[in-house]
Amino acid sequence: MQWPSWEHPFGTDELGRDIFIRILYGARYSLLIGCGSVLIGLVIGVIMGSIAGFYGGLVDQVIMRVNDMLYAIPNIMIAVVVVSLFGTSTFNLLLALCVTCATSFVRIARASVMTIRGQEYIESAYAMGLPTWKVILKHIIPNCLSPIIVQVTLLIGSMIIAASSLSFLGIGVPSPAPEWGAMLSSGRSQIRNAPYICVIPGLAIMFTVLALNLLGDGLRDALDPKLKK
Amino acid sequence: MKEENKDLLIQVKDLKVEYDTDAGVVYAVNGLNFEIEKKHTLGLVGETGAGKTTTALSILNLVPNPPGVITGGEVLLEGKNVFKMSVEELEKLRGNEVAMIFQDPMTALNPVMTVGEQIAESVLLHNSISEAEAMERAKEMLKMVGISENRSSDYPHQFSGGMRQRVVIAIALACKPKLLIADEPTTALDVTIQAQVLALIQDLIAKNDMALLLITHDLGVVAEICDDVAVVYSGQIVEKGTADDVFNHKAHPYTEGLFNSLPNLRKRGEDLEPIKGMMPNPMEKIVGCSFAPRCQYATDQCFKEIPTLQGIAQTHSVACFHYDAVFSPKGSN
Asked: Which tens digit of pLDDT belongs to each residue from A25-60?
């Protein structure tokens, strides 16, 4: 163990590994899991949510009740089940987290589609002679995008935290991999004499999530035509 | 009735539309009949809830279903029944042969598309041309409705209400439809802008040889631009004729009531005379004349039998048993 120095900017851990290099490589895991689970969840969630919101009735009921059931289970529980069924791996972790993402996208997409579909410009798009799929694709979805995009950036942040907490608990990315949560966890025993082992991965997680949240705010402003100059 | 070479564009025959809601069935349109000749303008006048908009949507077969159900009648567009058309035929019809202008220009435009794109979309849909050509066409349309063409890449929120309604008109007319349905096109606008928009519609209709179905509750607007007038009361036409027939020789007690409730220049200082009572609840099936409970001329017959439209002059017909009480034939006054 060495405290941060010019040679090792973030110091080395209990096995003498350079923490700076491990943080850099760890970013791959965090970003892959964060973006991957959100993107898969986004596609599934928006499709299901749009169907539920657009058609309503029985279709809506079925989709939403299934969604409620999944929503009611905490994501750590889902992760524990997935991991105990399929074993610990990055892919399984991603799979477990995308369930959580999909449920929140279903709700957002459904709510926005329901408001947009009653608007007069949708009626007028039909009166123009547009087929239903074009109305959905060109008029409804683009008007639902801004809450969804904001949710994407916020969710990537929370998925990175979720992935780290699962790794911290030992059911995330398997051990030698430099995942930030796992690194934080391994530094616990040394927290009195070498706190930097815990603090540095923690800061890495914090700044990444903060950056993603700021990105979400910026995107929302940039995508709103009313704020364009 | 003038039968000779009647060039009918659209015929609505015995149209019946219901809305099946949780609270019960709403009878919105109950056997409505009218027709529009080519290049003619018909004003459909009536109170809120009389079934005017539902009638308009029926012509495009766009009544929201559920809850709306067209339970009877037919709409013939140049002889073809709109209710029997396939989805593809309907998509060709909408926007291309029959276009519609909606009431509120603030919400009738998609906020995330530029106005140019929205006009071009309609052109592109019904004509096989390139996107660039469609955009050119969109700019021409903007110029036609009095908006500078370099504003085609602006978004709807950058326009005022009156200008947005011009854009809506440009979208509706982009494919040169044969029939334009204007659903209260000026209700949401200031009086000064109203006059401009009406003049614009009138001008474009005349230039492009279109027919117009103008839906409104404003008798002044009807007087200004319509050839023919049909007065709607609780989903039925109670009186129809040329603007002169209806305005100067009104025959139905409801029409009389409508005019009495308007300020009149010749009777300044006098109180206005409102029609007593309320429109009947559209959830109850009507026995007899729907206006009878509010009518000062009503007799027992009115509560038992439904009056049908009968011709009382060459172009003028009325659905009332006691129209004599109101009617003053031409030449008598």
From this structure: 989 888 898 899 999 999 999 999 999 998 888 999
For the record, the structure tokens of A198 come out as: 């815990």
Q: Where are the domains of chain A?
A: 28-227
- Is residue A219 packed enough to be buried (19+ CB in 10 Å), middle (13-18) or exposed (0-12)? middle
Q: How many CA atoms lie within 13 A of B227 on its CB side?
A: 15
Residue with tokens 């969604």: A67
Going by pLDDT thresholds of 50, 70 and 90, the confidence category of residue B1 is very low
Binary contact (A128, B111; C-beta < 8 A): no
The whole-angstrom separation of Cα A148 and Cα A45 is 10
Q: Please report the ipTM that was assigned to this predicted complex.
A: 0.78
Q: How many helices (H) and strands (E) does chain A have?
A: 9, 0
**B67 contacts on A by Cβ (under 8 Å):** none
What lies within 8 Å, CB to CB, of A94 at 6+ separation is A32, A33, A36, A37, A40
Cis peptide before B105 (omega within 30 of 0): no
Maximum pairwise Cα distance, chain B: 67
- In this complex, the residue of A124, A143, A226 whose CB is nearest that of residue B157 is A226
The predicted-structure confidence for B82-127, as pLDDT tens digits, reads as follows 888 888 888 888 888 899 888 888 888 998 889 999 999 988 888 8
Interface membership of B62 toward A (CB under 8 Å): yes
Cα separation, A216 vs A209, in Å, equals 11
Q: What stretch of H or E contains B33?
A: strand B24-37
Give the span between the Cα atoms of A118 and B86, in whole angstroms.
Answer: 24
Closest CB to B109: pick one of A121, A131, A138: A121
Indicate the Cα dihedral angle B219, B225, B227, B231, nearest 10°: -20
What domains does chain B contain, in order, with CATH numbers? 105-226 (3.40.50.300)
Contact by Cβ (8 Å): B230, B215: no
| CA B276 to centroid of chain Cα atoms | 25
Q: Domain A28-227 has what CATH class?
A: mainly alpha
**Following DSSP, what letter does each residue of A162-213 receive, concatenated?**
HHHHHHHTTSSS-TTS--HHHHHHHTGGGTTT-THHHHHHHHHHHHHHHHHH
Q: What is the pTM of this model?
A: 0.76
The pLDDT, as a whole number, for residue B3 is 44
| One-letter amino acid for residue B106 of the chain | M
Dist CA B75 CA B77 (whole Å) = 6
B102 has a chain A CB within 8 A of its CB: yes
- Show residues of chain A in contact with B92, CB under 8 Å: 129
pLDDT digits (tens, 9 = 90+) for B5-29: 467 888 888 888 888 888 888 888 8
∠ CA B318-B323-B325, nearest 5°, is: 160
Q: Does B86 touch chain A (CB under 8 A)?
A: no
What is the full DSSP assignment across B295-320?
-TT--HHHHHS----EESSSS-EE--
For chain B, how many helices (H) and strands (E)?
10, 12
Q: Do B108 and A128 touch (CB under 8 A)?
A: no
